[in-house]
Design brief:
Order of helices and strands: EHEHEHE
Largest sheet: 4 strands, parallel
Number of domains: 1
Oligomer: single chain
CATH class: Alpha Beta
Shape: globular
CATH superfamily: NAD(P)-binding Rossmann-like Domain
Structural class: alpha/beta
Distance between the termini: 38 Å
Strand order of the largest sheet: 3-2-1-4
């Protein structure tokens, strides 16, 4: 089975994915923004391969999380959840999306360059 690291795995889709993958026999390492969320993640998925702690909206803490993950070993896959690197704002908006739109959409580039 695979070794998988999941960011934003303390609640929502990240936690659901971690629990599902763990039930399927995969080895799952978690990520939490702070120590309180790390404690909650450990309680929600006691059979984890480790919990990296750090706020991914901070470059310094992101580097620290990377070091923690490297210390946990080699992973076959890393998955991220969109809000794990923000404070609740949109993570990414395509340049073609309207700034007033409440939804981001991906559009094919209109440029003739390929």
């Amino acid at each position: 089975m695979a070794r998988i690291f999941i960011t934003g795995s303390t609640d929502g889709l990240g936690l659901m994915a971690a629990q599902l993958l763990s039930r399927q026999g995969h080895t799952v390492a978690l990520h939490a923004r702070n120590d309180t969320r790390a404690r909650d993640a450990r309680a929600a998925l006691p059979d984890n391969a480790g919990v990296a702690v750090g706020d991914l909206s901070s470059i310094a803490q992101t580097r620290d999380v990377a070091a923690q993950v490297n210390d946990l070993g080699i992973f076959d896959a890393i998955t991220t959840t969109p809000t794990s690197a923000t404070t609740g704002e949109e993570v990414w908006r395509p340049r073609t999306a309207s700034r007033t739109s409440s939804r981001s959409t991906c559009r094919r580039p209109t440029s003739s360059r390929r």
